[in-house]
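input
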Amino acid sequence: MQMVDVGAKERTARVAVASAFLRMLPATQRAIREGRIEKGDVLAAARLAGVMAAKRTPDIVPLCHPIALSGVQVEVMPARGGLRIRATVKTVERTGVEMEALTAATAAALTIYDMCKSRDRGMVLEAVQLELKSGGRSGTWSRKAGSARG
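output
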């Protein structure tokens, strides 16, 4: 195993967007919306956890380069059957931020699970996926335009 040498690559603006879906009972979703979760503000905690996780990705993913992030945004939106998480990560670096975006989306979903597990242990974290990446030698990739898996 080895970390890929990116030293000769140009620094370019890069963006990655990842998403996740946390399936849950309607009652759990309602309790989150109404602020009735004992541990506190679930959505604020999830957003913060996602930002923190993006910053610590190289500590979690062994061969991931530590890079300076210029921006991290985590959104948690209600959706039919649960909550949709969307993480956008930006940098100007020699390597992309796909792993940081995926880590942010996952950590946000895990935080929601942790805060709500006393009400709904059957929650399911699913569809963690890259939605978009731009920048670098390979250019732009979009799930809608570039993937057979949709």
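quick obs: The two ends are 31 Å apart (CA to CA).
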